[in-house]
Specification:
single chain, about 270 residues, alpha/beta, seven-stranded parallel sheet, two-stranded antiparallel ribbon, 11 helices, binds magnesium ion
Length: about 270
């Protein structure tokens, strides 16, 4: 992730130096990107349903809920009863093992867009076993750390969708490489979120304009996570559930250095 931060800073600087939009430099083609949200485990089912309702009202195109044993089939069933037609995914963050295969098959009836990383975070083989036995697409997140992982997973048939997080794969170059491998296999990707501040968020937006980012990502508005963001303008999502892409040099968002200074807790200057 540290490498990713430095590498992305270089891409960002290059875009500014060349006076081109960062998204064009990365090879992007979209003029707007579709947005979804990820909602964690809540204190109660009612609380979760309320949150989903708020996010749908805000225009988000895809709802993803976290699941784990004891918080899955009942929850998904309640969501589907209330919203039979929304685009719904779930993310297990490795909460299951292959012994749960019959239980995981019960998820099929909820017509999920995908089930994300159901098994071990470093596994391709058993995900392939699971994917063979399920109609619902398996999406890999944590298991994909680079393009070689993506190639191995797709050759094995471990998933039908890949989540790309720029930090997880170590920067834009590897993110693009994973994107390209998936495209070769005709497997769509989407951009995962890691609670980025506006700076990382603006990079996720730029990356999401690449052609194989065909599914709504976890890239959402600044205000979902921040009282005050470190960029201006803040990232906002339209009522249509899209973030429009700006055709201006760099990221299209300006860093608020005063705000960064205000919230900095430690500073270290490295000199050669
Ligand atoms: Mg995930």
């Amino acid at each position: 992730m540290a490498k990713g931060a430095l590498e992305n800073a270089v891409w960002d600087a290059e875009a500014k130096a060349k006076n081109v939009p960062l998204w064009r430099l990365l090879g992007g083609t979209r003029d707007k990107i579709p947005c979804g949200v990820s909602i964690g485990i809540q204190d109660s089912h009612e609380q979760l349903l309320d949150k989903i309702s708020t996010e749908l009202d805000a225009g988000y195109q895809r709802i993803k809920v976290k699941v784990k044993p004891g918080w899955d089939v009942d929850v998904l069933s309640k969501i589907r009863q209330r919203w039979p037609n929304i685009t719904l995914s779930c993310d297990a963050n490795s909460a299951y093992t292959l012994q749960d295969i019959d239980h995981l098959k019960r998820f099929e009836e909820f017509k999920l867009l995908m089930i994300e990383q159901p098994l071990w975070n470093d596994d391709f083989y058993f995900h392939a076993t699971l994917q063979q036995q399920m109609q619902t697409a398996v999406c890999l997140d944590e298991a994909i750390e680079n393009a070689r992982d993506a190639q191995a997973a797709l050759e094995l048939g471990s998933c039908r969708i890949i989540n790309i997080k720029v930090g997880r794969v170590g920067g834009f170059s590897e993110a693009i490489a994973v994107h390209n491998v998936a495209e070769k296999f005709n497997v769509p990707v989407w951009c995962g979120g890691m609670l980025e501040s506006g700076l990382g968020r603006s990079h996720n937006i730029a990356l999401s304009t690449l052609p194989n980012f065909k599914l709504p990502g976890d890239v959402s508005a600044s205000k979902r996570y921040w009282k005050e963001d470190v960029i201006e303008p803040e990232v906002t999502v339209g009522s249509d559930g899209f973030i429009p892409i700006k055709d201006v040099p760099g990221t299209g968002y300006k860093l608020r250095e005063d705000q960064i200074e205000k919230i900095t807790v430690k500073k270290e200057i490295l000199r050669k």
